[in-house]
Amino acid sequence: MSQATSATGGGASYAAAGVDIEAGDRAVELMKEWVRKTQRPEVLGGLGGFAGLFDASALKRYERPLLASATDGVGTKVDIARRMGVYDTIGHDLVAMVMDDIVVCGAEPLFMTDYICVGKVHPERVAGIVKGIAEGCVLAGCALVGGETAEHPGLLGPDDFDVAGAGTGVVEADRLLGADRIRTGDVVIAMASSGLHSNGYSLVRHVLFDRAGMALEQQVDELGRTLGEELLEPTKIYSLDCLALTRTTDVHAFSHITGGGLAANLARVVPDHLHATVDRSTWAPGAIFDLVGTAGQVERLELEKTLNMGVGMMAVVPADSVDVALTTLADRNLDAWVAGEITERGDHSTGAALTGDYAS
């Protein structure tokens, strides 16, 4: 929370302009407990400093350490959290969107910072958001070393907020994953998503609320819960699962399935001379994807370039590593399956494509 001193007397003051410093201070006190739970041995100091400190001497064990960084937000999913009055799950989404991008190159997540922008500081609400971020950091194996809470009265309504974050990880240079490792005959393994994750909510909100007239509190039999509960399902955090794969198998690449959909994101890690084919018949997307498609009469290709369709992360591994990879993920209680293969690229093929029809 940015600090300032209010003017006294009858003149203008920070408080009169809508910024409540005392509420910001209380929010910091409430969040300290959760931030402490994320600490790694390399973290120095505590919450409240101007900068988070991370002991870089821990990187001396690397021959050639490469730092990987990423930043992201959670998009218009924050509107669902605001409308439902549930604030702790959105932090899981933020960590997933940042740290699962970092692990794609094989990097171990190290630390993260957050930025929370609100129209009015409600200390318990801000602390709830940070609680979720801290829990997400524990699941990703990284530390939450600092952040900023900014109060923007006049620009945001009293209940409006947004969140963003930035993270850093490290990978040994000769262990860097990516397109240059992929070979013909490699196998594509899909890892199940927990739902919509944090992409495509502008489409989802338009379809379900504006067109279909559905309500967040509406019980949806196909989902087995209310629509709001489904839409707030936290994004799966795959960081430690992916790192476990790098220890047990010769992983060539990962692809985090976010905005743009499965084919577009997988194509980002496929070299120009090769092609990835993913067979839809190897899995059945969850009920929420069918609901969005049916309620909005959204064509399949439009859904697939907007939503993850039930796959949140993909790994590309050699054919002889498939069994070990699937066993590793099963041991970690993560649903995964063989979904496709890498072949030579034809004259008219793209980097990645989906074939067949989804399983029923």
From TrEMBL:
Highest taxon of the source? Bacteria
Question: Sorted alphabetically, which keywords does the UniProt record give?
Answer: ATP-binding, Cytoplasm, Ligase, Nucleotide-binding, Purine biosynthesis
* UniProt entry tagged with the keyword Transcription: no
Record-level GO cellular component terms? cytosol
Broad EC category? ligase
Pathway connected to this protein: Purine metabolism; IMP biosynthesis via de novo pathway; 5-amino-1-(5-phospho-D-ribosyl)imidazole from N(2)-formyl-N(1)-(5-phospho-D-ribosyl)glycinamide: step 2/2
Q: Which residues form the PurM-like N-terminal domain?
A: 63-171
Which CDD domains would you find in this protein's record?
PurM
HAMAP family according to UniProt: AIRS
The Swiss-Prot or TrEMBL record describes its family as follows: Belongs to the AIR synthase family.
Which protein are we looking at?
Answer: Phosphoribosylformylglycinamidine cyclo-ligase
Species in which this protein is naturally found: Streptomyces kanasensis
Name of the gene = purM
